[in-house]
């Protein structure tokens, strides 16, 4: 059948055979306004020219990519370009993929740890949180911990720098760490303990700082205390004197002070306030989430040193 310009016109059945689409689908697109007929037969049947067939191929491709009909109408009306639509939908798909990966990790975590209903609900909420909302959980926690306190800015900056960033394709271990971290920062006992630490830091802000060689000190304590415990040396025993003297001297040097009774009393107070297994766990969980190198457990070694200092001051 010929159009007025000599181009071939196709019936809806012929278009269906050329494109492989069902007549029902073509009729739906036609009724929706995205594929208006190029003409009609005397009997009123719809006819389509080659341009309409090409248009239908574009409509089908966009629909297969998940583009809605309203957006397709805008593309066909040249209100937006195919490139703009593709970019927007690629971004949307990226978000969907991240969500699906997170759901997969959550399901694997649930299957692996035999979660109860409360944990399952917490994991469900985690899936629906945005990256910004997850960051706000920690930011709000720290805001409350620092509220009204004049803490050392350097100390506060280091605390706030530890932001957990769940990757796009997390492991079940990272999901579990996020769940545990979310539970931890909402625990009243943990919040009271961290607030106590912050208040102490504010009181001592001009005297307390994290020494540049903190990890070296921590490694020294672990090494010396590990050896003492292996040999059966109790922290209160005379055999522990040499260990205490070495460690106290190392701390005094790091702080630029002189070891002595007054320094040891201050050191003991700081260690008592700052040593807490849950605070250490807080940083370990952030490390797991962020994929940092494993943060070792040092609290038992510091507790031994604290008991040794208590026996001597």
UniProtKB/TrEMBL annotation:
UniProt entry tagged with the keyword DNA-binding: yes
PROSITE patterns linked: HTH_MERR_2
Example GO molecular function: DNA-binding transcription factor activity
UniProt key word Kinase: no
Keywords in alphabetical order: DNA-binding
Domain HTH merR-type: 9-78
PANTHER family, per the entry: HTH MERR-TYPE DOMAIN-CONTAINING PROTEIN, REDOX-CYCLING DRUG-SENSING TRANSCRIPTIONAL ACTIVATOR SOXR
The protein's name: MerR family transcriptional regulator
């Amino acid at each position: 059948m010929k159009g007025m310009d000599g181009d071939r016109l196709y019936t809806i059945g012929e278009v269906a055979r050329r494109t492989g689409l069902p007549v029902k689908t073509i009729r739906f697109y036609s009724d929706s306004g995205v594929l208006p007929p190029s003409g009609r037969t005397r009997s009123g049947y719809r006819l389509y020219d080659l341009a309409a067939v090409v248009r239908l191929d574009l409509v089908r491709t966009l629909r297969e990519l998940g583009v809605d009909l309203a957006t397709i109408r805008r593309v066909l009306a040249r209100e937006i370009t195919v490139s703009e639509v593709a970019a927007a939908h690629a971004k949307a798909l990226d978000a969907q993929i991240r969500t699906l990966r997170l759901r997969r990790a959550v399901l694997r975590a649930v299957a692996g740890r035999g979660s109860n209903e409360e944990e399952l609900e917490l994991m469900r909420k985690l899936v629906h949180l945005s990256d910004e909302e997850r960051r706000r959980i920690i930011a709000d926690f720290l805001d409350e911990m620092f509220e009204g306190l004049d803490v050392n800015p350097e100390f506060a900056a280091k605390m706030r720098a530890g932001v957990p960033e769940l990757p796009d394709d997390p492991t079940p271990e990272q999901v579990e760490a996020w769940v545990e971290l979310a539970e931890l920062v909402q625990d009243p006992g943990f919040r009271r303990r961290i607030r106590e630490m912050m208040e102490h830091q504010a009181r001592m802000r001009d005297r307390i700082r994290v020494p540049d060689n903190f990890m070296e000190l921590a490694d020294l304590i672990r090494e010396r205390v590990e050896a003492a415990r292996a040999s059966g040396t109790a922290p209160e025993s005379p055999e522990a004197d040499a260990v205490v003297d070495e460690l106290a001297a190392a701390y005094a040097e790091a702080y630029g002070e002189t070891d002595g009774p007054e320094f040891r009393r201050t050191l003991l107070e700081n260690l008592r306030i700052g040593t807490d297994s849950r605070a250490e766990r807080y940083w370990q969980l952030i490390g797991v989430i962020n994929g940092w190198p494993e943060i070792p457990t040092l609290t038992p070694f510091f507790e031994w040193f604290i008991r040794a200092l208590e026996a001597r001051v």
